[in-house]
Amino acid sequence: MAASKVEIWHRPSCSKSRGALEILREAGIEPVVVDYVANPPTKARLHQAIADAGLSVREAIRSKEAEYAARGLADPALSDDALLEAMVAAPILINRPFVFTPKGVRLCRPPETVLELL
């Protein structure tokens, strides 16, 4: 598998993200590593990644982040669009790691989920 066909939205401080990256590298894959906090995806790309991973927007948001409470995102009346806007504005709210391969997209929590994509 060509490394250019594998991408990970990575956060070095996250053990799950580090674990998924390690599994990829152990499999001989050097993915494109995207620091999604420094370089957040567009709203359209984020929405597509969430859909391709088979998740709801709420499943893809980090509800334990202080930013989640600060922005009042627990409100069930908020639309997916409003949640996506918040995630793009504060990318720390995007759950991680998302891994993209020719076989699909997954939120790799636990990190071993990445094996489904190899």
UniProtKB/TrEMBL annotation:
<dbReference type="InterPro" id="IPR006659">
    <property type="entry name" value="Arsenate_reductase"/>
</dbReference>
<protein>
    <recommendedName>
        <fullName>Arsenate reductase</fullName>
        <ecNumber>1.20.4.1</ecNumber>
    </recommendedName>
</protein>
<dbReference type="GO" id="GO:0008794">
    <property type="term" value="F:arsenate reductase (glutaredoxin) activity"/>
</dbReference>
<dbReference type="Pfam" id="PF03960">
    <property type="entry name" value="ArsC"/>
</dbReference>
<dbReference type="InterPro" id="IPR006660">
    <property type="entry name" value="Arsenate_reductase-like"/>
</dbReference>
<comment type="similarity">
    <text>Belongs to the ArsC family.</text>
</comment>
<keyword id="KW-0560">Oxidoreductase</keyword>
<dbReference type="GO" id="GO:0046685">
    <property type="term" value="P:response to arsenic-containing substance"/>
</dbReference>
<dbReference type="InterPro" id="IPR036249">
    <property type="entry name" value="Thioredoxin-like_sf"/>
</dbReference>
<keyword id="KW-0059">Arsenical resistance</keyword>
